[in-house]
Design a protein that fits this description.
By secondary structure, the protein is an alpha/beta fold. The chain folds into 2 domains: 91 residues, no CATH class; 313 residues, tm_1862 like domain (pyruvate-formate lyase- activating enzyme), CATH 3.80.30. It contains 17 helices and 19 strands. The chain has a 9-stranded mixed sheet, sandwiched between helices. Strands 2-3-1-4-5-6 form a 6-stranded mixed sheet, covered by helices on one side. It has a two-stranded parallel ribbon with strand order 8-9. Helix 1 packs parallel to helix 2 and helix 7 runs parallel beside helix 8. The chain starts with a strand and ends in a 7-residue tail after the last helix.
């Protein structure tokens, strides 16, 4: 068992995050001031904040870094990372950075080289963070600071993908809840929407799979959203139609008539065998057919998602899928790296692939990014998640002028977001970028039971922003 004993500080969270890069099953034991990795080697490490600075040491091996005015919590992570790197001969693409938004760190650094020097980020990742930050900021500038961004959540899917970690219900088991959920969602909208007196920069309907409703219900819901929310011709209106098996021509027409300008049609992989084994009940031909029908009806802003590192596929499979996506020429392509969260059917090793049994996913991603650049796609938003295979990332790419404003408004934590539906998170940004959040009950049945209480909580949360 490996243990890290904390001296002179209580940064358990940061220590655990660094340990999680190298080992599984990390546990905090605050009563004895330590964090342990039960599956690690039998060694004891001291992480210490001393008069002379921050130090991490194990026996005769000691790491004390020039802190360059780095906050103490970050310096604790830096020294521990470098010690573990020395002890294990392992390193990770993002160095000691474990946060969700590398672009926020890029914003603090003057150059990619500085990001590499201070946080041990690999040069290609530092360059990616800086490129993404520039594109993100350019797009964020088109979202007025006093505007509001709306998220509408539909936590239902036609089947549960094996890798899925979202709070979503499989409608094959919960079909009877769909109509009640739609009614509750409309009730919440009716209570809040008339009181919104701010410009809506974006409206994003996500999930789950929002297109899981019947044709009639989808038509009713999408038009109700359009009628209730104060959208204008500049409001970006996006719907995730992620599962092509739920996307009928009737639904596409309803969305077009309601002013939806952006769609997400997400194959995740362009291999039929993998789709079947992942419990995605559609084929590659269904993806192509849905995409082509959407383009035929006039949708030009379409995003398509792929997942790198999927179980059942070698690492280079994502490159083959990407080549097939290029033939469709969507405006946006998002590359996710498989990650492990609670409630997934996949086991931890299936996701993290620490032994590299599926090949070099890191190298495959670098090649994918190069391919995207050669086709004119620029990275415009990025985020990372804990327990992602090989410490990698998720990146949204867009052709010039086609990036999704909602994505940068939400991911940057620099614009207000008001959510509707079960499990949503509303955010308010105050002076000096101070952030406050307001969560919504995740349980669908509890949400259906009392949407008025959900609405009342958000009305109070946004009181100072003109929503009375």
């Amino acid at each position: 068992m490996l243990e890290v004993i904390l001296r002179g500080h209580d940064n358990y969270y940061g220590v655990a995050d660094i340990l999680r890069l190298f080992y599984d099953g990390i546990r905090e034991e605050r009563e004895v001031c330590r964090v342990i990795a039960p599956n690690g080697p039998d060694i004891s490490i001291i992480s210490s904040v001393e008069e002379g600075g921050v130090r991490a040491f194990c026996g005769d091996v000691s790491i004390r870094l020039d802190n360059s005015n780095i906050p103490v919590k970050r310096d604790i992570k830096r020294s521990l990372y470098k010690l573990l790197e020395k002890l294990t001969s392992q390193s990770f693409p993002w160095g000691c950075l474990t946060g969700i938004r590398p672009t926020l760190v890029a914003a603090e650094c003057s150059t990619p080289d500085e990001m590499t020097e201070i946080y041990f980020v690999r040069p290609d990742k530092s360059d990616l963070a800086f490129r993404t930050y520039r594109e993100e900021q350019a797009l964020l500038a088109t979202v007025p600071q006093d505007s509001l961004n709306i998220y509408i959540g539909v936590p239902f899917c036609p089947s549960r993908c094996e890798y899925c970690s979202f709070v979503a219900a499989d409608i094959s088991h919960h079909m009877g809840l769909l109509d009640d959920y739609e009614s509750a969602l409309i009730k919440e909208l009716e209570l809040i929407a008339p009181r919104i007196d701010r410009k809506l920069a974006s409206v994003y309907m996500g999930g789950g799979t929002p297109t899981v409703f019947s044709n009639q219900a989808m038509d009713r819901l999408i038009k109700t959203i359009r009628d209730l929310l104060p959208m204008d011709e500049d409001t970006e209106f996006t719907v995730e139609a992620g599962r092509p098996d739920t996307l009928s021509e009737n639904k596409l027409r309803s969305m077009m008539e309601a002013g939806v300008g952006r769609l997400c049609i997400n194959p995740q992989t362009m291999r039929d065998e993998t789709l079947l084994r992942l419990n995605r009940r559609h084929s590659v031909s269904d993806v192509v057919r849905a995409y082509q029908k959407a383009r035929e009806l006039g949708f030009t802003m379409i995003n398509m998602d792929l997942i790198a590192g999927l179980k059942y596929e070698p690492s280079e499979a994502v490159l083959d899928s990407l080549e097939q996506i290029f033939e469709l020429s969507p405006a946006n392509i998002t590359i996710h790296t498989l990650y492990k969260k609670r409630r997934t059917a996949m086991g931890r090793q299936d996701v993290l692939d620490r032994d590299g049994s599926r090949g070099d996913i890191d190298a495959a991603l670098r090649e994918a990014y190069s391919m995207l650049g050669s086709k004119g796609y620029d990275p415009y938003y990025m985020y990372r998640q804990k327990d992602t295979g090989h410490g990698l990332e998720n990146v949204g790419f867009a052709l010039p002028g086609t990036g999704c404003r909602y994505n940068v408004a939400m991911m940057s934590d620099r614009r207000d977001v008001l959510s509707f539906g079960a499990g949503g998170m509303s955010k308010r940004i105050f002076d000096n970028n101070r952030l406050e959040r307001c969560s919504t009950v995740k349980d669908v049945i509890a949400y259906i039971r009392d949407p008025a209480a959900v609405a009342a909580k958000k009305l109070r949360f946004y009181e100072l922003d003109g929503i009375q």
